[in-house]
Amino acid sequence: MSIALVKDDSQSGMAGVGTQFSTFYVAGRLYGIEVTEVQEVVKPLPMTAIPLAQSYIRGLINLRGQVATAVGLHQLFGLKKAASGDLMNVICRCDGNLVSLLADDIGDVMELSASQYEPVPATIDPQIRRFMSGVYKVGGPLVSIIDSDKIAKFLSKQT
Q: 50: Cβ–Cβ under 8 A, 6 or more apart, which residues?
């Protein structure tokens, strides 16, 4: 799998460098998380179920000897069930723990400028909104930015 770097040249006159985001799709929507928060993106991995866990905790995965909690974004966001296909793993280090965010498909790494940033719109479902830090307007769909710290805080409160 290769990941392309997509740079928005429409703001080429701006001073400074934009922020890079690793993007992925969940239920047809485009989400992003800062590249610095992503350890790696890997293909579907075998998962061990955790009895009596919340529905969004899909199980545990073994990532070369490190255990990561797999979080189903469909369930966490209250979206329709995931397609029957295998889900990709976006591995993040959240609050010192490895967390795998399960996504339908992986997008590109995008460099986005501050001029494209908007606060989280009030029209976004509150169940998703609570995990977002904002959106970026790009040529295509909006890129909804996930805040891994908010997910980590939510997960730590649930235990």
A: 57, 59, 60
CB atoms within 10 A of CB 159: 7
Instruction: Give me the amino acid identity at 67.
Output: V
Of residues 150, 120, 149, the one with CA closest to residue 134: 120
Residue the block writes with tokens 């993106």? 41
pTM of the predicted model as reported, rounded to 2 decimal places: 0.84
Kindly report, residue by residue over 4-54, the tens digit of the pLDDT. Answer: 444 444 443 344 468 999 999 999 999 999 999 999 999 999 999 999 999
What are the structural domains, with CATH classification, of the chain? 5-9+17-158 (2.40.50.180)
Burial 9-31 (b: 16+ CB within 10 A, else e): eeeeeeeeebbbbbbbbbbebbb
